[in-house]
Amino acid sequence: MAGRNKLVAGNWKMNGLRADGLALARALVRCAAAGRPRCDLLVCPPATLLWEIGGVLAGSGIALGGQDCHPAAGGAHTGDLSAEMLADAGCRYVILGHSERRQEHGESDALVRAKIAAAWRAGLTAILCVGETREQRAAGDADAVVVGQLAGSLPPGADADRLVVAYEPVWAIGTGLVPTPEDIAAMHAGLRARLPAATRILYGGSVNPGNAAAILALPEVDGALVGGASLKADQFWAIAACCG
Fold first, then answer.
1. pLDDT digits (tens, 9 = 90+) for 1-27
2. What's the rounded Cα separation, in Å, for the pair 235 and 85?
3. 168 has catalytic annotation
């Protein structure tokens, strides 16, 4: 993984009211003050918490990110946020193409591609999520599905400075199930062959302190996109501490 510093990112999803989010952010800042692991750190809270969480994280070395953005810079798009708004709130990253957005909101590869272009326009690093369902893996289609999502979701001009890819098998998200190390390594290697060499590729899907060391030790895994375990400061920090 020469030249690629690991990234451990927490996706808080639709969790946390103001008191919860601030308490979690403050706990992470205390952890950072006691000694940071050898990786980049990122948290992606709900949009309602971005501004205040950003203030808590300021100076800690922990970056702030959003969970989605609209392709347009502004306009009549009730309930949406532009990439420029995220940047204005202090975000450096935005998660795009997550399977929950693809499934619950019907997001296509074309829409994800437009959102990534918007993120780049606003100076944000896009975290593109790709992953197959259990049925697709059982049918032997996992590689084709993931490579197809990658190809369909990336605008021209991708480079390692503004793109992170997260492989998140849909069947592993929130289930406690994790692919074998061999399957993770093979999928990451296939993605690596299709990306600029320095692009970071994260693994996501039921990452926890018990399995993080083995996953993060795989040569093509450049970090983790953490869901449920990112909602507890001690668990998130234990995962980050596994970065070698």
1. 447 999 999 999 999 999 999 999 999
2. 30
3. yes
Q: Is 105 a catalytic residue?
A: no
Domains and CATH numbers, the chain: 7-240 (3.20.20.70)
Q: What share of the chain is helix, strand, coil (3-state, %, to 5)?
A: 40, 15, 40
Q: CA-to-CA distance for 145 and 109, rounded, in angstroms? A: 11
pLDDT in tens, 99-111: 999 999 999 999 9
Residue that has been written with the tokens 């946390």 in this structure: 16
Asked whether the beta carbons of 41 and 8 are under 8 A apart, the reply is yes
Q: How many angstroms separate the Cα of 46 from the Cα of each of 49, 226, 232, 234?
A: 6, 15, 15, 20
For the chain, what is the radius of gyration of the CA atoms? 17
pLDDT value for 36: 85
Q: Residues 129, 99: contact at Cβ < 8 Å?
A: yes
Cα–Cα distance for residue pair 149/134, rounded to 1 Å? 16
Question: Which residue in the list 70, 98, 107, 220 is annotated as catalytic?
Answer: 98
Which of 107, 132, 168, 220 is flagged as catalytic?
168
Which residues lie below 8 Å from residue 10, measured CB to CB, with a gap of 6+?
42, 43, 44, 226, 230, 231, 236
Which residue type sits at 148?
A: G
CB-based contact 116:126 (threshold 8 Å): yes
Task: Name the pTM for this structure.
Answer: 0.97
Token duo for residue 231: 């909602």
